[in-house]
Design goal:
- By secondary structure, this protein is α+β, with helices and mostly antiparallel strands.
- It has 4 helices and 19 strands.
- The chain folds into 3 domains: 42-52 and 285-354, conserved putative lor/sdh protein from methanococcus maripaludis s2 fold; 58-65 and 205-284, Efflux pump adaptor protein, beta barrel domain (Elongation Factor Tu (Ef-tu), domain 3), CATH 2.40.30.170; 74-195, no CATH class.
- The chain has helices at residues 2-38, 102-128, 142-151, 154-169, and strands spanning 41-47, 49-71, 79-82, 89-90, 95-99, 172-174, 179-182, 199-214, 226-231, 239-250, 255-263, 274-290, 294-297, 300-307, 310-315, 317-321, 325-330, 337-341, 350-354.
- The protein has a 6-stranded mixed sheet, with no helix packed on it. A 6-stranded antiparallel beta barrel has the order 2-8-11-10-9-12. Strands 3-5-6 form a 3-stranded antiparallel sheet, with no helix packed on it.
- Helix 2 runs antiparallel to helix 4 (154-169).
- The longest helix has 37 residues, at 2-38.
- The protein starts with a helix and ends with a strand.
- Residues 209-280 form the CusB-like beta-barrel domain.
- Pfam families: Beta-barrel_RND_2, RND-MFP_C.
- InterPro entries: Beta-barrel_RND_2 (IPR058792), MdtA-like_C (IPR058627), RND_pump_MFP (IPR006143).
- Residues 287-340 form the Multidrug resistance protein MdtA-like C-terminal permuted SH3 domain.
């Protein structure tokens, strides 16, 4: 009787224990699936392509105005008026400054009176020769006519008057070309001798960029080559220019001076500004992938290729590189899907999901 109760109870306990164990196994399988899902890495990929590779040469340089002139006072006297200030834009012929014109006015008037007197003396000499007007002197031999003009002082008076006229115009300093005023220090009522120069006039419509490259690059550069110019003060803007000069001399540091020119209609470049220079030249028939796809592993270079949702580890040999891309000589073929983002923690055969 006792055994009749024990046996069913034992069977019941075993059945409950079996259900509990099966439940734990099911939960373990679910956790394993969750962990397996968590191990999937979301990555970005790009298809390797065969194309022209842009080889980049980067250098630093300075912007210089294509035309720049230090303007001086042509007449030594007291500064009467300064019509501009630093930063003002002027047109060719605009009056920048004026000095006192009293001396120049007196000199011009004296020269005019001397010329008038010489002209009267010449007319008197012509009458003495038996002629009525200057036009009649065409009948004279050239040497006799020249001697008559010299004896009367007419020739020298004409030259003196022209000189006085020229000096009178120099009391006003005018802009020789369109540009912007810089380094202006002159002030009215001061002697012109107090200033080394009046100002600097800068034509910034075109800017030259001067930079240095290693002597090993001189064979790759030539006039007309395109360059990209980026101001350090404003990285958002890049201007395009062309090389106009490669100095055929290497300095003591093994550097070669190169000069490029660019339009500056937007006024992004200022004389003396520091700039970054980027020169690109193309090399044909290279397999190209993103630079971030190449990883260092165990002293070698590795690229992960995505195949059927798996990250496949491949050793590669790289060639040229620039700021964004690298060429591959061995290990990758055109059309391979390479992983270039979120690839640092990958291992061979890891499951990956391609981000759309």
């Amino acid at each position: 009787m006792y055994y009749r109760f024990i046996l069913p109870l034992t069977l019941l306990l075993l059945a409950c224990n079996g259900k509990e164990k099966q439940k734990e196994e099911n939960e373990d399988e679910q956790y394993a699936k969750i962990e397996q899902q968590d191990e999937k890495t979301i990555v970005k990929v790009q298809v390797a392509r065969e194309d022209r590779f842009n080889l980049e040469l980067v250098s630093n340089g300075k912007a210089e105005a294509n035309r720049k002139a230090a303007l001086n006072f042509e007449v030594a006297d007291v500064v009467r008026k300064v019509n501009v200030k630093n930063g003002d834009r002027v047109k060719k012929g605009d009056i920048i400054a004026e000095v006192d014109d009293e001396k120049a006015t007196f000199a011009l008037e004296d020269a005019r009176l001397s010329l008038q007197k010489a002209f009267l003396d010449l007319k008197l000499a012509i009458i003495n020769e038996g002629f009525k007007t200057l036009d009649d002197t065409v009948q004279l031999p050239p040497r006799r006519k020249e001697a008559m003009y010299l004896q009367c002082g007419y020739t020298s008076s004409v030259k003196a008057f022209e000189k006085a006229q020229k000096e009178y115009t120099l009391v006003k300093t005018r802009a020789p070309f369109d540009g912007i005023i810089a380094d202006l220090e002159a002030k009215p009522y001061n002697q012109t001798s107090a200033y080394k120069s009046l100002c600097t006039l800068i034509d910034d419509s075109k800017m030259e960029v001067v930079f240095n490259v290693l002597e090993t690059e001189i064979g790759n550069l030539h006039s007309g080559m395109e360059v990209e110019i980026t101001p350090y003060a404003n990285h958002e803007y890049t201007l395009t220019g062309k090389i106009i000069e490669v100095n055929p001399r290497i300095d003591e540091n093994g550097m070669v001076k190169v000069k490029a020119i660019t339009d500056n209609h937007q006024g992004l470049l200022i004389d003396g500004m520091n700039v970054s220079i980027l020169i690109k030249r193309q090399i044909d028939h290279k397999i190209i992938i993103p630079k971030s796809a190449v990883l260092p592993r165990q002293g070698k270079k590795v690229v992960f290729v995505c195949q059927k949702g798996k990250a496949i580890w491949r050793y590669v040999t790289t060639g040229y590189e620039n700021s964004m891309e690298v060429s591959v000589e061995e290990g990758i073929s055109p059309g391979d899907t390479v992983i270039y983002e979120n690839n640092l923690g990958l291992s061979h055969m890891n499951t990956v999901i391609i981000e759309n």
